[in-house]
Amino acid sequence: MDTHARDEAAQWFVRLQDGELNAQERQRFEAWRAQRPEHQYEFDVLQGLWNAADLLPKARLQALGDAPLKRPLRGAVLRYAVAASVVAVALSLGLFLTHSQTKSYDAEFTTRLGEHRQVTLPDGSSIDLNSRSVVTVHYEQGQRGVELKQGEAMFNVEHDLDRPFVVKAGAGWVTVTGTRFDVRRDDELTRVAVEAGTVKVQGRLSDQGVTLTAGRGTHVDTQGRVAAVYAVNPAELTAWRSGKLVFNNAALSDVAREVSRYREQPLRVSTASVGNLRLTSVFNTSDTEALLKALPHILPVALRTLPDGSQEIISR
User: Fold this and answer.
1) DSSP state of 111
2) The domain 243-315: what is its CATH number?
3) Residue ranges of the domains in the chain?
């Protein structure tokens, strides 16, 4: 991670905590934050740690502020050194004189077409958002709640037996105490895949639900029915985090739906028989045109452009 971006994020963060920015300063801050993904990421890390301070016992906060730095920090830990100093400064100013286990936290995070964003939550959990995704977060006493309103998100949840982490998506919900899992919400289904740990998936019509462990997945339909557990490849399903689209014997209808997430206009299949054709390949999320150009050379299909500007895969 760019240490210069981290330092700039800390400077902006301290200024925002110190007082209101004037209109010109606010404009400069917003321009800086939008300039590079690293700027938004580093600022979100600081904001998450700042919010997390109110969720920790006062004694623990004081220990963090008083603890001397005995050796240099390297690698991933270095990214949080400046953030830790912000917490220490806040302690010295007496900003954490009270502690409330019932402190609430509300936020909404979105991504635009082709954007990938990571946010850090007050408890240290993180969410990776795929293209065109919307999540809302609501923490309260006894529960950490998230709703995936649109798109796809990868969750890395900090362990907390006293405050389960519940993700609602469509007609289903996922309950965990600490794990890594992916949730994708489409029009017809909500899909859940687990990379590490254990989650429980429930739906409106299946109160008992199913339990997933690493390498297992399920889906919930619009009526709230939860499918039986099946094997998944989390690395393939979450390849979008590294800018890849991985298709392994995937139905062309599923390919079209996935590609549409990264295009201004949707990609469709003309018939069920075309949609049932299978594709195995890897493409970049940033270059879906390459996929469209390759399709006619891989499968017996062609592409046609519709009056609304969208494209359709037809039989050749």
Assistant:
1) -
2) 3.55.50.30
3) 3-92, 105-233, 243-315
Give exposure, 202-239, as e/b (b: 16+ Cβ within 10 Å).
bbbebeebbebeeebbbbbbeebebbeeeebebebbbb
Q: Is the pLDDT at 13 greater than 80, yes or no?
A: no
pLDDT tens column, 213-243: 999 999 999 999 999 999 999 989 899 999 9
- For residue 84, which of 71, 67, 107, 98 has the smallest C-alpha distance? 67
Distances (CA, A) of 186 to 96, 183, 224: 42, 10, 14
Residue whose pair of structure tokens reads 């925002």 in the numeric block = 16
- Sign for the CA dihedral angle at 123, 78, 117, 280 comes to negative
Q: Report the distance separating Cα 196 and Cα 178, nearest Å.
A: 9
Please tell me whether the overall predicted TM-score, pTM, comes out greater than 0.85 for this model: no
Topology, domain 105-233: Jelly Rolls (2.60.120)
Dihedral (CA of 109, 115, 120, 125) sign: positive
Q: What is the CA radius of gyration of the chain?
A: 22
